[in-house]
Amino acid sequence: MPFNKILVANRGEIAVRIMRACREMGVKTVAVYSTADADSIHVKYADEAKCIGPQNKSESYLSLLNIISTADITDADAIHPGSGFLAEMPHFAEACRDHNITFIGPSPENIEMMGDKVKARHIMGKAGLNPIPGSKGVVEDEKEALKVADKIGYPVVIKSAAGGGGLGIREAHNAASLVNSFRLVQGEAKSAFGRSEVYVEKLMEKARHIEFQVLADQHGNVVHLGERECSVQRRNQKLIEESPCAALDPKLREEIGKSVVKAVKSMKYSSAGTVEFLMNADEDFFFMEMNTRIQVEHTITEAITGLDLIKEQIRIAAGEKLGLRQNDTNFSGHAIECRINAEDPENDFLPSPGTITEFHAPGGPGIRMDSHIYAGYKIPSIYDSLLAKLIAHGRTREEAISRMRRALSELVVDGVKTTIPFHKKVMDDERFLRGEVYVDFLKSFHMPE
Amino acid sequence: MPEKKELKLEILKEIIQIMKDEDINEVCIQQNDLKIEVKRFPDQMSLAAQGATMMAPQHEVAHSEDISDGLVIIPAPMVGTFYRSPSPDAKPYANVGDEIEAGEVICIIEAMKLMNEITADVNGEIVGIMVEDGQPVEYDQPMFQVRPR
Questions:
Q1: What is the pLDDT of residues A125-137, one digit of tens each?
Q2: How many domains does chain B have?
């Protein structure tokens, strides 16, 4: 038993996910919740639960003070931050360290390095991963942005240096729209992340979003667990992920995997992490960013490797050596994940909060459902709209798709609009079935009337 | 008197400027009969950052909630350890039967080694104390029962 008690500094399905791993390991759990989440499943699942604030995030799930104070009064010896919220705030990891609480994740220094996207491009560039063509550093004003765009060619993207989660990003297809968008992104960046610094990258439209999962211990051992293809996105937020990527052959996978491991080793990284790339039609890989946390879609990597990534994170944080080497990792079959969000796909995926009136989860071979919802559950409108993750695993991509189709037909979520109809349509889409999925997939995909 | 007013304004302006320059969120100054309290509301990111660097004693207002019989509850506005007095050998801030004023410190909640002075927002008589000295409290946990005036 690596720890006696772990406080899960998150909510919803990821909190339940982490607590499940803890329960299997015999580790006690502490849930934290805002007043809006008093009826949430993660509160009932944990061994103990403390209310940490009102519904607004800054006074609850983002309140470093209340969360660490909760760890103090419950004698938790470790904190798992989950994904989002404080997971990638270096101050939080540092505060845990200062208070003798183990932070289940990488060091504050690693988080800071990769949290600044401009720094990350520079560091990973030096470590052998080619960044997406773009500005060398922060772009101060429109004049500089125009110069960069002229050099790399339109269309371009303006991104927040402190960004993540698909926020603080705008495309510009010509000089006029670049000038227009530049100050807007600075403003969005400042309000979402507290910093207005932005940089500019080439917009690669016919590219695939391919990310590599890594696991690293505190003794310098690093392995990669293959890639995930996450090209079906709306507003830069992932909707469907799959592993492996249909377009990647084993040789290319091995080559990129090796370079990822080398780069992550050079950072002295530990815990789980994901290195994100855009791959063009010529199979060139361009580094985009690194996420220093467990990701929503870690589940499909678990499906094809048989590993439990949360347990691995916990063991790594407790100082254990990685129990596997690169040639121990086995990839078996194909897995797809569909994110079931409380959003209306026929209305530009507008959030659709409300009360779940009926819920029935699918089952059968190769189906996994991670969720925190239940019939009667009132979805708070101020947090993200993820209701459930539906994962289908099969021996082949075709089998995974047919299982996903079946599971989507069994799944019932009534009372709010969800992305279920969207996923059903995609599972029948010709381009998707052929594996022709690029980051602009949704731009030319329409929900039938 | 105009001079006193101008003086207060000057001090306020200076305080606000210093707070901006040094990125301070709360300042409380008392000199004789002059007391000035200024609070800033930074964005989410800085709030999380502030949590790691706060060193000065903090003040938190506990917002009272109505319950039955005309009484109100004063709930904990934060997570931490509840103390009835400023130090182990000092007298408690408030006892049952005491009259309290809004803005008066009624207890301490200690969090991350910082002692936070908790003030009530209601005038009234303390009719019940629902937590023990040294007990951990969560957000919204009832601490005092008060009969408002």
A1: 999 999 999 999 9
A2: 2
Residues A191 and A257 in one domain: no
Question: DSSP label at A297?
Answer: T
Contact A194 B44 (CB under 8 A): yes
For residue A99, the chain B residues in CB contact (below 8 A) are 112
Q: Say if residue A285 is in the same domain as residue A163.
A: no
**CA distance to A9, A252, A394, A399, A435, per residue, from A232 (Å):** 29, 22, 20, 19, 11
**pLDDT value at residue B28:** 79
Residues A188 and A328 in one domain: no
Q: What is this model's ipTM? A: 0.87
User: From edge to edge, which strands make up the β-sheet containing A208-216?
Assistant: A285-291, A271-279, A208-216, A222-234, A237-243, A334-341, A386-394, A367-371
Please report whether residue A117 resides in a domain.
Answer: no
A155 with A223, same domain: the answer is no
The answer on A222 and A195 residing in a single domain is: no
Q: Is A293 a catalytic residue?
A: yes
Structural domain including B131 reads: 58-148
* Same structural domain, B139 and B77: yes
Instruction: Tell me the mean pLDDT in the region A420-445.
Output: 94
A303: Cβ contacts below 8 Å, ≥ 6 apart: A243, A333, A335, A368, A391, A393
Statement to judge: residues A146 and A79 lie in one domain: no
Is residue B81 domain-shared with residue B30, that is, in the same domain? no
- Is residue A121 in some structural domain? no
**Residues A220, A198 within the same domain:** no
Flag whether residue A249 sits within 8 Å of chain B, measured between CB atoms. Answer: no
Q: Do A95 and B45 touch (CB under 8 A)?
A: no
**Contacting residues of A for B53, CB less than 8 Å apart:** 91
pLDDT tens per residue across span A168-203: 899 999 999 999 999 999 998 988 888 899 999 999
Q: Which residues contact A81 (CB under 8 A, 6 or more apart)?
A: A9, A10, A87, A92, A103, A104, A105, A293
Q: Residue A70: give its domain's CATH number.
A: 3.40.50.20
Cβ contact B44–A99 (<8 Å) = no
Q: Which one of A293, A315, A339, A403 is the catalytic residue?
A: A293
Task: Tell me the pLDDT band of A449, cut-offs 50, 70 and 90.
Answer: low
List the single residue in A69, A89, A94 with the smallest CB-CB distance to B112.
A69
Q: What is the pTM of this model?
A: 0.88
- Mark out chain B residues that contact chain A at CB-CB < 8 A: 43-49, 51-54, 78-81, 111-112, 136, 138-141
Alpha-carbon distance A378 to A189, whole Å? Answer: 31
State the residue range of the domain holding A78. 5-104
pLDDT of residue A167: 81
> How much is the pLDDT for A53?
97
